Amino acid sequence: MTTQTDTPGSVTAVYKVSGMSCGHCEGAVSGELSEVAGVSSVKAVASTGEVTVVSAAPLDEEAVRAAVDEAGFELVGKV
Q: Contact 59/39 with Cβ under 8 angstroms?
């Protein structure tokens, strides 16, 4: 699900990521996703497996998948 946020022109998407179990995992996923072009913020929560990404425009899911893979986890899909 992609929704507009209060910041004009930004898009928020929530993804489900499997395999995160701790703060280090959250940091690894957040760090990789932060490098995707257009991303302004990332919040990963290991306990739910959810990653919230705010970007300037909707992101290409393959770019998100590649970043999550690079961090060593699996992108399940959008929530």
A: yes
Question: The pTM is what?
Answer: 0.88
Distance CA 46, CA 70 (A): 17
Report strand pairing: 50-55 vs 2-4.
Answer: unpaired
Q: What is the pLDDT of residues 55-69, one digit of tens each?
A: 999 999 999 999 999
Is residue 68 within 8 A of residue 13, CB to CB? The reply is: no
The phi and psi torsions of 35 (rounded to 5 degrees) equal -85, -10
Burial class (CB in 10 A: 0-12, 13-18, 19+), 73: buried
**DSSP conformational letter for 36:** S
Name the pairing type of β-strands 11-18 and 74-78.
antiparallel
